[in-house]
Design brief:
The structure holds 2 protein chains of 2 kinds. In chain A, about 25% of the residues lie in helices and about 35% in strands. Chain A has 12 helices and 24 strands. The chains are: A alpha/beta, B alpha/beta.
């Protein structure tokens, strides 16, 4: 490695997390630890009906009998579930503010620091934002406009109160509480998240967006998101995250369920930039996310796009169950790891119906001492006639202390289905670098250009509002080393 | 009968059971079995296997009569018959064949770098009852053909062979497994390649449906050495091909290839694992499978690149053709890379025979079956045409024709 690369790596390794700050808002928490009382407390605080509490307790009893999945290529200390606060709501939030002026100014300031001021976003981007600050929804904008179309976009807590039928029918239908230990945990203690219902034939006119934000120390956030697209509808949903700097590891175990009925399409995009820990690997978020979409009806489509740059531990596999005939599943991912970050991410495409198609594009970039794993499963069940899958996963290594791993599982039980899988791992091509330098770009600019080109296939899948932010994030992640 | 009792009962027939050191090592292995209990859920390599058959087996072994090694000095070739896993000793200025010794057991089993949870290798160490050691002396270029014969029904053969290719030597090794009796062979080949040596290893497997073959190899390559392995599996019985290769010194190369042809209810498990532990090494893993009827196959390929192994080139390719509705194929091509200056890739495809190609051939007047057969042959043509031994090429062609005659 030449000295220039070493220098740039060095500068990069000193590049601190920009969004590390703490907002002082009084928190009202139950006692630490997880037991039935905690769950009852959460359920009581959220004014939930009895059936919901029962559902939670059932999940909790399942969780008690389960062990954490150990197969991922991740290394982290045992999680002490009794040392975590399971509910944290800023004081006085039991009654929801009607508009932004009622919101704590400090909260608004936090978002301003992040560069996503609510007001500006409202005006400029035309995005309805359902903000989750710790565990309670703060403000939901553009609600009225969506209501006119019959679209329900609210917090899951509100949905439990107002739309119990939909919740009873769909909650846990894609990710059963007993699926694995993190889904059981989430089902037992989830506090907030978003609920979206798009009625038959409605094309949602704007990108729905939620900013999650972990704020209080030692508070694991357990969101639950449920999106239902009824026949012939379309929705694009954005999720983005960034968390303040903390020393203690914070646990995050979200569950996201998508259901697309006949001819419906759901596009789910994520930009994740939580605190990844400092340069010595201290602190950072533990991110154990279960995301799963069900293409229930014919000709339905679910598309996942993710840009993962944060978190100390990422355990995340947005999956599609292609049940309806002719349904389509897509997965586009960019995962960047630096310092001591560990990411084990990928997808699972289960082809059940006839003529189902799936496409997986995954790009992993490892820097510093990080470990980046792609883990994906493509399976064709017996009845998946003429099903088709294409998978491409590429890894880029920057520096010789990091690791890039590819672990695909490919299973075919149908002789008319076709699977293609390819993967490659390499460092940045010296010839490309040389070419760019020759044309007058600095080393950093050249690397940035090449990395951007490497990710382009995925970034172009993001909606406009997000693409800008994602590109910014990618370049921030490479800042110092590439500019 | 469980493994513990089975072992205690047959201890006196098992190799090296008088050696205390080895005995204590075996006790440890028994402990592993007791605690792990062949946990299928957490051990993918046990997928599709009829475990009962291999755990609760009845131990039976017959010591064979002496056989002779035929030596043809003219073209430096030797032909060896291994009966029930044993062959007679032989020595000349080019090779030396001996029985396997205590220290060979220790050399391998104690420093076992193969995955610890490969139960079939552990079973082999535990019940070891046969095996030999072949040393190819410095700077010789020879050819060896080994016919592996099992004499009786219901035998359980646990065989460990050591191959050592000394500096500058070159060996072409052809092994044939053609058995028709109801026995189980569990064979472990330990292969050491010294500096600048070369081994071309061919395995032709063609057992009948009641014969089980479990074959594992572990090769380690020193400086400038090359190990090439080609497996042709036409067996109608269960075959497990697990091949591990370690590139321990600079500029060494490992090439693991295989083709399997499955039909009826047959199952085959395949795995290749290459560890790059030094700079400038190359590896290649290519497996192709054709599955008919209710056949099931798994293929795990794995490339591990250590942090020091810069300038590595590691390629993997896995291709499967499913000819029937009920056949299934599982593949898992894995890359684990800890060095940055590498070129590694894998490709994997599973699917039916290309319809357009069939259409093309049919439009030229061919029947559907003829078209299918031609396309199967062309699918593996690359592997077949690379065989440079005429006799062997002919044998394999015949077996292919036999397989294709059953394709409808």
């Amino acid at each position: 490695m030449n000295s220039e690369t070493l220098n740039t790596l060095d500068t990069y390794s000193k590049n601190k997390y920009k969004y590390g700050f703490v907002t002082d808002i009084d928190n009202e928490k139950p006692k630490k630890g997880l037991n039935e009382d905690t769950i009852k407390f959460i359920s009581f605080k959220k004014n939930e009906p009895d059936w919901m509490l029962e559902w939670r307790l059932k999940a909790f009893s399942k969780w008690k009998r389960m062990k954490e999945p150990k197969w991922a290529n991740l290394n982290f200390p045992e999680i002490d579930y009794q040392d975590i606060y399971y509910y944290s709501a800023p004081k006085g939030f039991e009654k929801k503010p009607k508009d932004l002026s009622e919101v704590d100014p400090k909260l608004i300031e936090t978002y301003n620091k992040l560069g996503i001021p609510l007001e500006e976003q409202k005006v400029l981007a035309g995005v309805a934002v359902d903000v989750v600050f710790d565990s309670v929804s703060v403000a939901t904008t553009y609600k009225g406009e969506l209501e006119k179309l019959g679209i329900i976009f609210c917090s899951i807590g509100e949905a439990i109160q107002k739309h119990p039928d939909l919740i009873k029918k769909y909650l846990g239908s894609v990710i059963p509480a007993g699926d694995h230990s993190f889904s059981a945990l989430n089902s037992a203690v989830f506090t907030d998240g978003s609920f979206v219902y798009i009625p038959e034939g409605v094309k949602c006119p704007m990108e729905l967006s939620t900013y999650f934000r972990i704020n209080a120390e030692n508070t694991g956030q357990f969101e639950r998101t449920l999106i239902i697209a009824d026949k012939g509808s379309y929705v694009s949903y954005l999720e983005g995250c960034t968390a303040p700097k903390r020393d203690d590891n914070q646990l995050h175990a979200a569950n996201v369920e998508l259901i697309a009925l006949e001819d419906a399409e759901i596009k789910y995009s994520t930009v994740q930039n939580w605190y990844p820990g400092d340069e010595d690997g201290k602190g950072g978020i533990y991110n154990f996310v279960t995301k799963r979409g069900l293409c229930a009806g014919k000709n339905s489509k679910i598309s996942w796009t993710q840009v993962e740059t944060g978190s100390a531990i990422t355990w995340k596999y947005p999956s599609c169950i292609l049940k309806g005939d002719n349904s389509i599943g897509e997965f586009y991912s960019v995962a960047i790891t630096n310092n001591f970050q560990q990411a084990d991410t990928g997808t699972k495409m289960t082809h059940i119906g006839k003529n189902t198609k799936s496409k997986i594009i995954s790009k992993g970039i490892s820097l510093g001492k990080s470990q980046n794993t792609y883990r994906g499963e493509v399976s064709f069940l017996r009845k998946a006639d003429k099903a088709r899958n294409y998978t491409q996963c590429d890894s880029l290594l920057v520096g010789n202390k990091c690791g890039a791993h590819t672990v695909p599982y490919i299973d075919s039980k149908n002789n008319t289905a076709v699977i293609e899988h390819e993967a490659s791992t390499s460092k940045i091509n010296e010839d490309q670098l040389y070419y760019c330098r020759q044309r007058g770009l600095s080393h950093e600019e050249a690397v940035s250009l090449i990395v951007n080109g490497f990710c382009k296939q995925v970034l172009q899948e993001l909606p406009m509002e997000f693409a800008v932010e994602a590109q910014k994030l990618v370049s921030i992640s490479l800042e110092g080393s590439v500019g | 009968m469980n493994i513990q009792d089975n072992y205690q009962k047959n201890k006196k027939n098992i190799f090296f059971s008088g050696n205390k050191d080895i005995q204590s090592h075996r006790e440890k292995l028994i402990n592993i079995f007791e605690t792990d209990r062949f946990d299928r859920k957490n051990n993918e390599s046990l997928k599709n296997i009829n475990l009962k058959k291999f755990i609760e087996f009845k131990y039976k072994y017959l010591v064979p009569e002496e056989t002779s090694v035929i030596n043809n000095n003219q073209d430096n070739s030797y032909s060896i018959v291994s009966v029930n896993g044993q062959c007679s000793s032989f020595k000349d200025d080019k090779i030396e064949i001996t029985k396997i010794l205590d220290e060979d057991y220790n050399d391998f089993s104690k420093n076992n770098t193969i995955e610890k949870n490969d139960h079939f290798v552990n079973l082999n160490s535990l019940f070891l009852n046969s095996g030999f050691k072949i040393v190819i002396k410095k700077n010789n270029n020879i050819k060896i053909k080994i016919s592996n014969i099992v004499t009786d029904d219901n035998l359980t053969i646990f065989q460990k062979n050591n191959y050592i290719c000394e500096e500058g030597s070159s060996l072409s090794l052809i092994e044939e497994y053609e058995n028709k009796n109801n026995s189980t062979s569990n064979i472990l080949n330990v292969i050491n390649l010294e500096n600048n040596s070369k081994l071309n290893h061919f395995l032709i497997q063609d057992n009948s449906s009641n014969h089980n073959l479990i074959i594992t190899s572990h090769s380690s390559c020193k400086k400038d050495s090359t190990y090439t392995q080609k497996v042709y599996n036409f067996s109608e019985g269960y075959v497990r091909n697990f091949h591990y290769s370690e590139l321990i010194e600079i500029n060494s190369e490992a090439d693991l290839q295989g083709i399997f042809f499955l039909k009826d209810n047959n199952t085959s498990n395949n795995k290749t694992f290459v560890k790059h532990l030094a700079e400038d090494c190359k590896s290649n893993q290519v497996y192709k499978g054709i599955l008919n009827d209710r056949a099931k196959a798994t293929y795990f390929s794995n490339t591990y690149v250590n942090q020091v192994a810069q300038k590595t080139e590691g390629y993997q390719l896995s291709k499967g053709i499913l000819l029937s509705d009920n056949a299934s194929y599982f593949s898992k091509p894995e890359l684990k890379i800890y060095a940055d200056d590498v070129k590694c890739s894998h490709g994997s495809t599973i699917g039916p025979i290309d319809e357009n190609a069939v259409f093309y051939l049919r439009s030229r007047g061919m029947s559907k079956i003829a078209a299918t057969k031609i396309l199967i042959s062309s699918f593996i043509n690359e592997e077949l045409s690379s065989i440079n031994d005429d006799l062997m090429s002919e044998t394999i062609q015949k077996k292919l024709v036999r397989y294709l005659s059953k394709v409808k």
